[in-house]
Amino acid sequence: MSLTKTLKLNDRSVNYVDQGNGPPLLLVHGFPLDHSMWKNQINFFQTSHRVISPALPGFGASEPMTASDADPATRSLTMERLADWLVEFLDAIDCKQPVHYCGLSMGGYIGWQFWRRHASRLKSIIAANTRAAKDDELIRRGRHMAAAQVRVSGARLIADAMIKKLFYLANDQNPLDIDYIAQVHQTILATDPNTISAGQIGMSQRIDATAWLSEINVPILFIGGEFDTITPPEEMQSNAIAANNAEFKNIPSASHLTPLEQPAAFNSAVEQFLDNIA
Ligand code: MLT
Known about the structure:
binds D-malate; globular; eight-stranded mixed beta sheet; alpha/beta; Rossmann fold
């Protein structure tokens, strides 16, 4: 079971998990979720690792980084800022040792910036269902439209649309009958529309990290989901080939949220990877 804690960082409250002993394993959630998406990994790895997982600012029960009077239409949560915020957070919980950084999707986008800006804090990278490439023009435009729409109409449209893409089983008749899908749907519904908008704008502004892959000198494990259309496994496999020291694992019968859809396969891939580093 994971117990959440809270602390104040720059006067803003952060909700997080910090459990277990051993080498630090930092779990960084995707968009627009929170650390509850890692519940199976928190339970599994806390017996061998110090498992740390914050809800990023504005997501879950963490307060946004900026005061709410900023203009919601231009507010952007950039991957650079989030990477710097993670280091401030690690300092605040006195985690100075380099971390195994495990990020899913947006968490992975932030991971490339974490390497570029704070390489000395990294021991390895687990890049789950994520991309190194930046958005093309079509995706970028789609994000800006989605950002404007959520500010006007709230989170329901995005919650309903996203679960179909996040989960292999969500195209069943009643996806919300499946507990973990209903929980993720609820998490998205509860997210402040201004944070969803700022996240979309931030992701649309991210820079291409593909050329960095051959320079990253810590081991990388790429994990894809067989049916993932947001971050296609074929692209992740090419990233693994382009990287200096990487491997790729494709998880069958999964879409985008592999840690929740196929926890045993996900945990076993990560465990093997971490055992080989230790
Ligand atoms: C995520 O899971 O973090 C998002 O789907 C990423 C994205 O929209 O590119």
